[in-house]
Recover the amino acids of this structure.
């Protein structure tokens, strides 16, 4: 086809230009310093070494001039040996003025012009090579690697900063995201709200006020007192809803926790605030978001379709465990190993705190 012929001419012209550059550069473009250095270092060979190249060159010229005489009997014999019967035109050095000769002349002329304007084409080629290196596989690999390193540096700067508070904020953020997606996908909407009576509303208002006071507290002692008040409010809720054992446990734990915190923060330096308003806003949003998610989870558990397990414990605590206090039966019978593990953890924590306090008194 025409385009294939044009492509062949351009390719051969580039080959001609490269041949001229190599031949002309070797024999006619030596610098004087390089010529002196080569003359001092390279020695001419003996004349017997010229016999081989000369014989090959003369044979090529002789066979080219008299190609018809050599090929008139050789070509037909080679054709008949492979079973072909078509007539093949004889090889000749001159076929007259035809398209092949014109294409050859155009190729030589174009190659010569490329050699004359080689500085322009070399600069253009360098620019093209640079462009290919930028958008080619190597360039794309370098861009991808640089982008990966930028992402790694950003992740290190954002997440591996050495601040425990920010680590906790990151963990809580991802936990909030996962829980929120799970609730949005599997929850039953709309959620039926609990029926609030006056007593429940009072408890909610009391806890919200105490939490608000904790947020604006300016001393650790004030913070601990309000935290203990929140725990005692939960104790009141247990007592009102007929869970005196849980209320007693909650009260003891809250009192003990407040005392331990007071002992721990007694020797700490003066309370100072280092958080910016952005950090406080972030912490507030995380707290509200996590609280909202847990409220929704509790509301979902109130609308479960299967029979609650609490009914099983209420029916079988006296029949199987011979106990009238359902909560105590659950703790020491139905889930005795759970309780043993919790007691072990609390005991170990208590012994650790006792050891620290004893060491501090010494």
């Amino acid at each position: 086809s025409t385009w294939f012929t044009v492509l062949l001419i351009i390719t051969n012209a580039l080959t001609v230009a490269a041949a001229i550059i190599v031949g002309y550069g070797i024999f006619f473009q030596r610098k004087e310093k390089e010529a002196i250095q080569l003359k001092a270092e390279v020695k001419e060979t003996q004349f017997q070494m010229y016999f081989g190249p000369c014989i090959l060159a003369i044979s090529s010229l002789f066979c080219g001039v008299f190609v018809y005489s050599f090929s008139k009997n050789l070509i037909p014999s080679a054709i008949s040996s492979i079973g072909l019967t078509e007539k093949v035109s004889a090889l000749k050095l001159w076929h007259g003025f035809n398209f092949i000769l014109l294409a050859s002349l155009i190729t030589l002329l174009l190659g010569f012009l490329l050699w004359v304007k080689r500085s322009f084409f070399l600069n253009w080629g360098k620019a093209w090579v640079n462009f290919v290196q930028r958008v080619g596989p190597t360039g794309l690999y370098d861009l991808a690697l640089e982008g990966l390193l930028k992402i790694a540096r950003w992740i290190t700067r954002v997440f591996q900063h050495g601040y425990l508070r920010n680590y906790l904020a990151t963990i809580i953020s991802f936990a909030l995201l996962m829980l929120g997606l799970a609730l949005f996908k599997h929850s039953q909407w709309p959620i039926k709200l609990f029926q609030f009576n006056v007593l429940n509303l009072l408890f909610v208002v009391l806890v919200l006020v105490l939490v608000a006071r904790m947020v604006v507290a300016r001393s650790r002692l004030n913070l601990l007192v309000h935290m203990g008040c929140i725990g005692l409010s939960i104790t009141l809720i247990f007592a009102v809803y007929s869970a005196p054992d849980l209320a007693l446990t909650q009260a003891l734990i809250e009192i003990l926790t407040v005392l331990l915190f007071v002992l721990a923060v007694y020797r700490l330096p003066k309370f100072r605030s280092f958080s910016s308003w952005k950090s406080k806003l972030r912490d507030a949003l995380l707290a509200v978001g996590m609280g909202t998610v847990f409220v929704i989870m509790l509301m979902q558990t109130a609308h479960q379709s299967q029979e609650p397990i609490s009914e099983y414990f209420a029916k079988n605590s006296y029949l199987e465990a011979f106990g009238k206090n359902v909560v105590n039966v659950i703790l020491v019978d139905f889930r005795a190993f759970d309780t043993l593990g919790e007691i072990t953890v609390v005991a170990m924590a208590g012994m650790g705190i006792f050891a620290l306090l004893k060491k501090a008194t010494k």
User: Anything to note?
Assistant: Residues 2-28 form the longest helix (27 residues). The chain has a mean pLDDT of 78. The chain is about 80% helix and 0% strand. The CA atoms of residues 235 and 251 lie 6 Å apart.
